[in-house]
Specification:
Blueprint lengths: L1 H11 L13 H6 L6 H12 L7 H8 L7 H4 L6 H16 L3 H10 L2 H18 E3 L6 E3 L22 H4 L3 E2 L6 E6 L3 H4 L2 H13 L2 E4 L9 H5 L3 H16 L5 E4 L2 H8 L9 H11 L2 E3 H8 L10 E5 L3 H4 L6 H9 L3 E3 L15 H4 L1 H17 L4 E4 L2 H13 L5 E4 H8 L4
Parallel strand pairs: 4-5, 4-6, 6-7, 8-9, 8-10, 10-11
Antiparallel strand pairs: 1-2, 3-5
């Protein structure tokens, strides 16, 4: 563990205990508990590095009570990379204490790509046994408590698609006179839960005369694993994806999921150890673009259809702070004829999803999400656009809980409507 302590000390020594992180931490604001702040966690890790505190399961629980929304890092006046620090701490704690059996089994399953795919396809076929339709057609409700999966009987989740995205589309979608050739990294959520969003992305790219390759051997990006501290699985998945993407000669790697994009573009750098794979990743990282970045760069097509809707936009944490994408989605939405764009208050504040966070701490996640929905509904918008499937799932749940008529769509789906491709 000495290497972890040395790494921590380089960051810990910078913290001046100013408490600026308290003003931006959604978990602290929802729980009013100092040990949920970055400052509190820094103090705990300082005690560990000094030998005053052990890497106990209780400390592991405290370190898990963080959305990894990255809000504290850019606002830190001392430049403490709290996001990187807490990931390192989770890694050390997972090595020392292990992970819950449900997580360990789930993450191990991700490494068996074909088995994982078969499991989710079977899950889609038999999901009616475990889930029932939620009121208003928002999604599914568990028929009975599923504590091991972090699902209460009131949480609304989207159904698994009867046919995944990668089974709907050819591996290569050709165009007559291609101006570019890109790889579309679908990730898991667009493939198995929101395939319509993935189809919209492919249609948009083809409308710009771009040949689209969806590599068949791509795996989960690994974010759920390495953010929980399982770097062994996270590294394996990262290296497998880099090998697959490096095998093709692509002008860009297109993503439609904020977490996948941030992992491919930045976070793999701290995970991959193999020198050859690391070199390949460095070349790929510069090519990774969110779909809104790509469209903003090439420009919207002319002769757009009207989309008569009032729309607001939610910034996913991994898109705005992970990939630096914030102006592009707004630029595109505002340029669509008929769209009345309404900016919500605190649009870049976390919605409370945080991947597995909302499964482990659903009530806190719901409180944070309610703040987001209050701000969204005050705009009077009928549609909330976003670029993260996890955010979409959590926000849709919140809207269903309060009986709101607001819909959540991927930004690409709205652009596809304007292109007449819906």
């Amino acid at each position: 563990m000495e290497q972890h302590y040395a790494e921590w000390q380089r960051q810990l020594v910078k913290c001046i205990r100013c408490g600026t992180c308290r003003s931006v931490c959604p978990v602290f604001q929802a729980s009013d508990n100092e040990n949920t702040t970055a400052r509190g966690k820094v103090k705990l890790l300082e005690a560990v590095s000094e030998g005053k505190l052990a890497l106990t399961p209780e400390l592991q629980t405290r370190m898990s009570k963080c959305l990894l929304c990255k809000a504290c890092a850019p606002g830190c006046p001392s430049g403490v990379r709290t996001d990187e620090l807490f990931l390192s701490a989770r890694r050390a704690l997972a090595v020392k204490n292990g992970l819950p059996i449900a997580k360990k089994l789930a993450f191990t399953g991700l490494t068996y790509r074909k088995l994982f795919d078969l499991g989710l396809k079977m899950g889609a076929a038999f999901q009616g046994i475990v889930f029932k339709d939620a009121p208003g057609g928002r999604g599914k409700l568990a028929r009975f408590p599923l504590p091991g999966a972090g699902l209460s009987q009131r949480r609304i989740i989207p159904p698994l698609a009867s046919t995944p995205l990668r089974s709907r589309l050819p591996e290569t979608s050709k165009v007559a006179s291609p101006k570019a050739r890109v790889a579309f990294y679908t990730g898991c959520m667009l493939n198995y839960v929101y395939p319509e969003s993935g189809e919209a992305i492919v249609k948009i790219l083809k409308a710009h005369d771009v040949e689209v390759v969806i590599p068949a051997r791509q795996s989960c990006c690994g974010t759920p694993a390495f953010t929980s501290g399982d770097y062994q699985v996270g590294r394996y998945l990262a290296e497998e994806n880099v090998k697959v993407l490096a095998a093709g000669n692509y002008d860009a790697i297109i993503t439609g999921c904020a977490s996948c994009g941030a992992a491919l573009k930045h976070e793999y750098g701290a995970i991959i150890e193999d020198p050859a794979v690391k070199t390949a990743w460095e070349a790929l990282a510069a090519k990774v673009k969110d779909i809104t970045q790509f469209v903003a760069e090439v420009g919207l097509k002319q002769d757009l259809r009207e989309v008569k809707a009032k729309i607001t936009y939610h910034d996913p944490c991994h898109l705005v702070r992970g990939m630096g994408v914030t102006k592009e989605p707004r630029q595109l939405l505002k340029a669509i004829p008929g769209v009345e764009y309404a900016e919500m208050k605190d649009a870049a504040k976390c919605c409370g999803a945080g991947g597995t966070f909302s499964m482990a701490y659903y009530d806190i996640a719901r409180t944070i999400n309610d703040w987001k929905l209050d701000n969204a509904e005050k705009t009077g918008a009928g549609i909330l656009a976003t670029g993260c499937s996890a955010c979409r799932m959590h926000i849709t749940d919140g809207l269903g809980q309060r009986g709101s008529s607001m819909r959540v769509l991927h930004t690409a789906e709205i652009i596809a409507q304007a292109y007449g491709l819906d």
